[in-house]
Please model this.
Amino acid sequence: MSHIDLASAVGWQEDDQHVSWNQRDVLIYAVGIGAKKDDFALINELDKSWAPFPTYPVVLPFKGTNQDVVNFRELMTGGKRAPGLPKFDPNRGVHGSQSIEILKPLPAESGPGWKVKKRIVAVSENKSGIILENELLLVDAHDTPYAKLYSASFNLGAKATGGTFAKRIAGPPQAAPVPKDRAPDWVVRDQTTPEQAVAYRLSGDYNELHINPAIGASTGFGGVILHGLATFGFAARAVVSAVGGGDPRALTLFGVRFTAPVKPGDALETRVWEVGPARAPGHAGETEVAFVTVNLATGKVVLGAGVAYVKKAEKSKL
Model:
């Protein structure tokens, strides 16, 4: 058994992952995150308003360069293991948070040579398990960065020190608190379909939890649940629609914590507050919003600590 030393895992760089996509992949992703028949900026590649939806890169660590079905279990259990970490049970891993910062507009198709560079930037342990946070940088064949992503996974029941531990070397911009003294500036309701997970999985996340009711039942969810990253995309569409005037190019940063599951067919409501100018470097002239997404079927917040930077459309100005 390898030596357990959580601190030694922080900063560890994985092998680069080759990734690719084409225009069809981007269009399929738009359907998976609920694009409607008149969302021409997302679904009609011939429309002058069309652009790849900016959150698309979140699927690339699942898809890689594949144009066929991906074996999810092999993907999750393969590859090198970072030094100093205990072995995690893939059946007890929960996606805790996700963010993406768009550094350059994504091209309609990748061409050869694109990669995701991945490193561990934070590890923490508490009585419930171990949280692992990764930074992913999407670069082209010339190593030009196009997007920076942070993704945290909570490994339930995992133990290392048996106590508490935390070390961090990088992380995404944090959300401002949702204002308690006023109503949201924008409210967007949307409806997932019973087939939503069927559509979303075609972008590369073939986890059986989202298609096989027996697995959903055995893991305590009472059946199939929607991919958290599909709900993430629904909320991003809501922010783009409300604040960015429907222009996919308007969104430059988007992040959430996953707080409760959604079942395909549930209705969602995203509540958005303008909180001021974007605070992070490189986003001058952009508007920062805080938001939450609520599952109207259960009344629970499913996406919390929401933060987005948006190039605000004139018609959206308060």
Q: What stands out?
A: The first helix runs from residue 6 to 9. Residues 8 and 74 are 25 Å apart (CA to CA).
